[in-house]
Every structure is written in structure tokens, then in C-alpha cells.
Amino acid sequence: MLERKGFLKVDLSIILPTLNEVESVPVSLSYLEKLLEAVDFELIVVDDDSTDGTWQKVLEISRNNPRVRLIRRVHRKGLSTAIMEGFMVAKGNKLLVADADLQHDLGIIPRMLEASNDYDLVVGSRYLDQSRISGWSSNRQSLSIYGTRFACSIIKNKVTDPLSGFFLINASKLHGIAPALQSKGFKILFEILVKHPDLTVKEISYEFKNRQYGQSKLTGAVIWDFAETLLTRNLLGNWNLILLKSILGGLSGIVVNLLMFVILRKSGLDFINSLVLSVHVALVWNYLIKAYLYAIKPGMKQLLDYYGTHFFGTVAILVSGFFIIQLQYTEWMTVIISILLGSGWNFFGNHIFDFSDKN
Question: Interior CA angle at 67 toward 51 and 89, to 5°?
Fold first, then answer.
């Protein structure tokens, strides 16, 4: 256990990323102050501009409690980047990450601190023999187990829970490796383990509980970003994954376009009008799916901008479809050729309207 040596020295910095967790932060702070009364610690709340009053509540607490610090992030999202921002301003010799929604058992922090005297990295594991997971459906447990097994197959460290969001790391080690960390999404521990297999690691069992407060940070964008981390670290090297996002989004749009065309033709609509409507439906689909992946709130102005950058591609599909059908090609062949021609321009339009710049 670290000894209290005065208010000017911080032995432990606890990073709590929050999103709409106004009820849980005061509960967590009260519990931590009782649990760690012999430790000089600070609590850094990194809030992604919650709408339920979380950051206002933390700001109010911080005015009366010097242990508490607030980072309010506006126009920035993502769990790993929130954690990194907390790390960069932390004063402690040891840095701990935990959820503010009380899913993690904060009661094991003293054991984690003790273990950190001998290890670079201490991980709260959900998958040791003595660990438990409460409140999860069988589907969620299966998804988590398979994802964890896949992650374990990639890293060199023999750990049971490389996707844990509950860990403690030596500050000097973290600052030494920070420039190499580029992780997105919500599994920064995985990035640390992949990039720095030389770290000594100790795992501690605990009971992972169901969410009591707050809002899940597991968005489509977060899931994609984690998949991106897996791909860049193992399969694609430094290949441009913005390109991959454009390709996958475009392919899903092609599928929607074809399905909508078939539905409209079967409903009795003529070829040209079916093509026109299906193209517009696919364009809206592409916009919405990419806004979801990049965690952008859809808006009419953005949709119109998106339409503008894809205008010539849309025209190319319609004009080529009109002329190709005159050459006695089948409707299916006409639609496919037209979509491929228009997709070429739309691919470049995706790079003009770069969603990553909108986040």
C-alpha cells in the first residue's frame, strides 16, 4: 500500500471516462475516498460532453474537493482517446483506469496497488478462475469470450483479459510508450499489450457487474475502431483504413441499391423511375451508415453536403442506365454496370466528404 505523504504529492491518478453518468460519479468518489483514505490520489473525470449534467456535477464537486479534476471534451468522442487525455494530465506515479458506472469492482484497487510495486501493469481480469461476470445475457457473454480469445491469440503476453477496461500502469512506463499508442475505440489495454509485450503483467480476479448507471460507450464507431486496431496491427499493416471504410460503405450501398431496385420493379414501377428511386435510397443509406460508423449525429445540412459531393456519381448512374438499356442489355446487367460507373466517382466523393474530419 502506498503511504500518504502530503497533499502536494499524488501517488495514484484514477481516470474515469464518463458519458451521461451523473448519478454514478458521486457514488464512485465517495467509495474511493473511504477505500483509499491512506493514499494520496486524484480523480480525473474525462467527460465526452454528457447531456445529463455529468460534467456540471463533476465541476461542482471539484470546486470543493481538490482531489477531483474535470476534462470536458467538446466535439471529441471515444473511450481510448478520453483515457489518453486523462493520462497526459495525470500527476500520479501510478495511473488507474476504471468505469464510472460501477461495473468494475473498485474494492480490488488496494490489491492492484500492492501488485504494482512488482509489475509494470496490473489488470483486473474477468476471466481468471476466481472471476465472475454478473448480469450478462448468454449472447453477450459468448461475444465477449470469442472476442477475448481472438485478442489473446494476437498478443504475446499470456493474459486472460486483454480487453479489460480496468487496469493500473506505472506512469513512467506509460509516458515512455505513449507516443506509439494510436488506439481508437474502447480497448486501449489491448493496444498497450500489442505494442509493448515487454511489460510485466499481473492479473487480479474480480466480479464484473452489470451496469448500474450511465450510458454504454459501445457505439458502432467504437466497434469499428477496435476492428481497425486489429486489422492494422495484424492483417493490413499500415494500409489506409479510411479507404477500407469507403469500400465497405460503398459495397453496402450497392447491395441496398440492387435490393431496392428489385422491390420497386416487382411493385410495377418502370425501369427508369425504379433506378432513380433506388439510387437515392442507397445514397441516403451510405450517408447514414457512415455517420453511424464515425459517431456523427446525422443532420439535414450534412446530408445535403453529402449529396452535393456525390451528385455527379448519381448522374453517372442514371445517365449510363438510360443509354445502356437502349443497347438491349438486360435490366440486371444495366443496373450493375451503371452502379459500378457511378461508384467510381462516389468513391472520390467519399474522400472529399471525409467523415473523419467531421468528428
Answer: 75
Cα 149 to Cα 334: distance, rounded to the nearest angstrom: 45
The C-alpha atoms of residue 355 and residue 248 are separated, in whole angstroms, by 14
pLDDT in tens, 84-112: 999 999 999 999 999 988 899 999 999 99
Enter the pTM of the model: 0.66
Does the 12-235 domain belong in CATH 3.90.550.10? yes
Residue type, 298: P
Q: Where are the CATH 3.90.550.10 domain residues in the chain?
A: 12-235
- Asked whether 354 and 242 are in contact (CB, 8 A), the reply is yes
Q: What is the percent of the chain with per-residue pLDDT over 90, rounded to a whole number?
A: 40
Q: Is residue 282 within 8 Å of 256, Cβ to Cβ?
A: yes
Q: How does DSSP classify residue 159?
A: -
Cβ-based neighbours of 152, under 8 Å, separated by 6 or more: 159, 160, 162
